[in-house]
Amino acid sequence: MGMLEGKVAVVTGAGGGIGREIALGLALAGARVVVNDVGASLTGLGETSAAPGAQTCAIIAQRGGEVVASTDSVAGWDSARRIVAAALDAFGRLDVVVNNAGILRDQIFHKMTPEEWLSVIDVHLNGTFFVSRAAAEPFRRQGAGAYVHMTSTSGLVGNIGQANYAAAKLGIAALSKSIALDMGRFGVRSNCIAPFAWSRMTSSIPAGTPEQKARVAKLQAMGPEKNAPLAVYLASDAARHVTGQIFAARHNELFVFNQPRPVRSVHRAEGWTPETIAAHALPALSAHLAPLDRSPDVFSWDPV
Length: 304
Fold this sequence. Notes:
This protein is of the alpha/beta class. It contains 10 helices and 8 strands.
């Protein structure tokens, strides 16, 4: 008996990379799986294809798993509902949703266009909401369910040239916490993973300088399959007490992230003026100001 025996899971963006490995991991653990992928390019532009999702389905079927394909987009209310309906129609229930679908439109902030902003927000943040909202109805009816959302250290920590992606991914972390708070009464859990892996989503990272090449080499050592065990665990009943959390998987390391809380306060009985803030408040608070880090500044050691 696998950890997910009898469960039904939807995995979006499961045509390759991290999504495929998670879908395979869920199936290996006993889940029946809906493999969702529109088969779009990394940017979401151009023609779509059912082939990537079909390949994932074929691997699961060859290993004896039960699987159906979905090619609907996460980035629309009606199409997201069809993704959830695919699970209910094929398997009669839904227990797990893994929100993994994503695109990239990297651009330095002062050159970012409205279309570059909206396209990424639509797939990552709106897509996570749409699919999660559609699944909330069967989850509530059956009094159980697990969401696993993909966030990113680009949002949790920071990165250059990814304002759209970072905003969406940090928004997903907040959305997950809200889902955990709102739906805990129905036995529903919601958690995030910040995955580390070399995949299509990271293949666009620049590698023109020696420093950039060294960073890419580190990422290439991290296979997408390293994220699957954490996703399987969070989807399972073994994690029934875990909700509203942010985890990361980095090769053979696992992390849990803190979440924003006050770290220092100052009080002045007569209140504050701009001048007294400058003279007294900021000197007292300055030791606790967050540095302007990027993800590679925080995760600077080699994965082992």
